[in-house]
Design a protein that fits this description.
The protein is α+β, with helices and mostly antiparallel strands and about 260 residues long. The protein has 5 helices and 15 strands.
Length: about 260
């Protein structure tokens, strides 16, 4: 269900503020680049998390995940989710294996401004249908980037994203959505990757100054998810794999800037 703060208008950013967010985005991109290099068979997810924490420290950046409030405060600077885990996986002793799909999400604040991104990493030899799932997830995110420069309303973009996933035989998760971002990680508006009556009713305009974290989650099977007993890790209800990718995008007078571009 969409939260009530979805009803509020986005807080538009100035060109200067967007440039400051880009500096945070560069650090997030560097962190994910290091994660991609490290994610090999035999490595533990907590080793990857510790590397990102050290990188943030070197840059003087603040993690936006560690300590995030919940029934149990989130204990790490990254979310690392494997295979049927959709999002919010807690790094720990789990060992990455050949054939895994590893989703890594991280975010930081630098000089008062935030950036957030996620990637899905294919480890070794992956089943062809799993590889196609990854490709479709990445295409869905690319649709958002392209259409932000063309469309006037978010619902038009979300519909194209949803249709692309469904036409490929997959399903978009509807229980979790993207978000506005700026001085805090979660700002208005909420950014669904699908369209229904409520999304259309609470639509928002695409205009210069809009900065949003777009994060489609695409399931191989059904869209429904459950949360594990650790209070954080979200898994597909049917046990089939899921893909999660994310970028922070800024709409400017010159076009769409990928704040978290590598």
């Amino acid at each position: 269900m969409l939260r009530k703060f979805f009803h509020r208008e986005p807080d538009l950013k100035s060109p200067r503020e967007i440039r400051l967010m880009r500096e945070a985005g560069k650090i997030v991109a560097e962190a994910l680049r290091e994660c991609r290099a490290m994610t090999k068979p035999g490595i533990r997810t907590k080793d990857i998390d510790q590397a990102v924490e050290a990188l943030f420290k070197r840059h003087g950046a603040q993690s936006l995940f560690k300590g995030y409030p919940g029934k149990v405060p989130f204990p790490a600077v990254t979310c690392i989710s494997v295979n049927e885990e959709v999002v919010h996986g807690i790094p720990g002793p789990k060992v990455i294996k050949d054939g895994d799909l590893v989703k890594i999400d991280t975010a930081c604040k630098l000089n008062g401004w935030c950036a957030d991104a996620a990637i899905t990493i294919v480890v070794g030899e992956v089943r062809p249908e799993w590889l196609r799932l990854v490709q479709v997830g990445e295409q869905v995110l690319e649709i958002a980037r392209i259409e932000l420069g063309r469309c006037k309303k978010w619902s038009d973009i979300a519909l194209k994203m949803q249709q692309h996933a469904e036409n490929a035989g997959f399903n978009v998760v509807t229980q979790y959505v993207g978000h506005g971002i700026g001085r805090t990680m979660h700002e208005n508006p909420q950014v669904p990757n699908y369209v229904n009556r409520e999304v259309k009713r609470q639509d928002f305009r695409i205009e210069p100054g809009l900065v949003i974290a777009v994060e489609p989650m695409v399931n191989m099977g059904r869209p429904e998810t459950d949360t594990k007993r650790d209070h954080w890790t979200v898994v597909t209800r049917d046990g089939l794999p899921s893909v999660h990718v994310e970028h922070t995008f800024a709409v400017t007078e010159e076009g769409v800037m990928v704040i978290t571009a590598d």
